[in-house]
Amino acid sequence: MRNVTSLSYLLLCTGLIVLAPSCTFKRPAPAPAAEQEHKVKENTAVQDQKVIEDTTRQAQANIANGEYKKALDRYSNAYDRYHYSELRRSYAAAAEQVRNAADIAYQKKYCAEAGNIYNTLFENGITTRDFAQSLSFDDDYLSGRISSCSKALLENGLIKYREEKLDEAIAIWKKALVFDPENKGVKNAIETATLQLQKLKTLK
Questions:
Q1: Structural domain that includes position 82
Q2: pLDDT at 118
Q3: Is 66 left (phi over 0), alpha (psi -120 to 50) or beta?
Q4: CA–CA separation, 68 vs 114, rounded Å?
Q5: Radius of gyration of the chain from Cα atoms?
Q6: 4 falls within a domain
Q7: Buried b (16+ CB within 10 A) or exposed e, 104-120
Q8: Is there a domain that residue 15 lies in?
Q9: Would you report the helix, strand and coil content of the chain in percent, each value rounded to 5?
Q10: pLDDT digits over 85-95, tens only?
């Protein structure tokens, strides 16, 4: 009887061993660390590309509308957060576009417009970036052009001043102060012309 029981037990155990694999619930094998890391990199790359494309698209729209400060500020803010090489190249290229717009205005003697654009580049601080050496201009170039624009407007205002068109002279000089607010020569000219204008109005 004991032998029969032992044999039955052995057969039962053997059956369980055979059947067990088909009844066991298996957990999904975790993804290898290398595969997970690859997926993270892929997602990051997609996000990076979107930032670059969005920034470039919006900035180019600003430049097309003559909104140079908005365009450069957009790049500056993005670059402060993401030091992508492609974003760096796009930022530098946009700065060259803005510089070119300023040069065209300067050559046409649109001094107020040119001065404003040169000053926008200067205040943006792009010449202090880690890629500044790749630019075709620096602070000295921008400062020189701003000074030239101020001087031209000062002289244009003096022409009107000598013609006794004080209002027009003052209006021209004030344009220079927009991009060169610390210009003492322009400030003195405005002050002198304003006093004379007030005296004339008093006499009338």
A1: 48-127+136-203
A2: 98
A3: left
A4: 12
A5: 36
A6: no
A7: ebbeeebbbbbbbbbbb
A8: no
A9: 85, 0, 15
A10: 999 999 999 99
